[in-house]
What does this fold into?
Amino acid sequence: MPKIIPTRTPMAEQPPAERVRNFDEVPFGYTPAEAVAEAERCLLCKRPTCIDGCPVHINIVGFLELTAKGEFRAAINLIKESDALPAITGRVCPQEAQCEKVCVMARKYEPVAIGRVERFLADWEASQGDLSVPDLAPPSGKKVAVVGAGPAGLTVAADLARLGHQVTMFEALHEAGGVLVYGIPEFRLPKTIVQREVNYVCSLGVSLVRDFVVGMTATLDELLEDYQAVFLGSGAGLPWFLDIPGENLSGVYSANEYLTRSNLMKAYRFPEYDTPIARGRRVITIGGGNVAMDACRTALRLGAEESIVVYRRSRDEMPARLEEIHHAEQEGIQFNYLTTPLAILGDDRGQVTELECLRNELGEPDASGRRRPVAIPGSNFRIPADTVIMAIGQSPSPLIPRTTADLTTKRDGVVVIDEATGKTSKQGVFAGGDVATGGATVILAMGQGRTAASAIDEYLKTGVW
It folds into this structure.
């Protein structure tokens, strides 16, 4: 029986006062000794609930046992049997709500830091300069088109390539990675790591075509003329707004645009990259998810004197990762909880000057399971600001459904799929990730990608829909 160690091994990170002045990654990662020490905390359960809590079903107990023995190569190879992007999931996966949440240690003590060990192993492999590539099945002669090179698309492409199918990824942007490159900031996920994982997928024989917008460059039906199956992993890039007065004022951004300018178009490295972006002095971010945390922390690093979050529920209801909220609080982000925006106000030049809000109190839980915000009459107040960022959610682009017959979508543009297979209403077309959920986590997108890859393989072999 392994010795019980109640608390997890700490991971060093940049001090808040330093990191708010740069875009370098905040946590430094484990050393080999720290990774071994943390892996030794695993109880090696015979019925590991942590694996059930992982959307891609990584053999967690297996890789922790190998890590504890110092067998890092074997450990990372075991992870990559289920997860083609371990350096990414080790950083941005919400382990605290999935594998670590159901860790047996969590019943009385701190759960094993599964994500931190996973990150260490992926980085260790890269440091050796020798990325292992698994054996591939013999060529099947079947061709699959993957629309979108984000988390879901990369996962599908990797799994199908390993099964012997010829895979081509079609990416609308000039860089692969999807939300990993345009949405998640450098300080949370360095882009060199994303490129490293994309290169790994391509090393399996996957082809990548950039600047290819399905629905414009070619339609889905045209792809089906050349490919036996298509996977839609085109994400959710259509931002939501609140439909309140003043959203057309200068200084109002969607988080999609704001983060894309900073991340994909490298505005954070101005003047090396000549990308314009608002560098407001008082920046308000509306929302409480991970995207909101990314936006408010980016604003601080771009020079904001005050970065403020407005969220209509309390801290306990925020959907963002606890680690991201904690980091934001450390960095001096101001939080206005139980606050609903009513209008954005501006001056005679059309520039944002204030956000008018209303105080809330919490009522009964709604369909999301979180307590519903209830407005307090007469509690209006205003917050001065020169920049407002909307981070309240997003939907899939309507481009592909508009140009594709027989593809069923919901009212918000989300593609309807069979959850067990990823099949859409159109024969030969599968989907997964944000295009089928409207916006979720990287690891859930990857989990849907793995499910779809298995179903695509079966379809290619049998022809049965």
Summary: The mean pLDDT is 95.
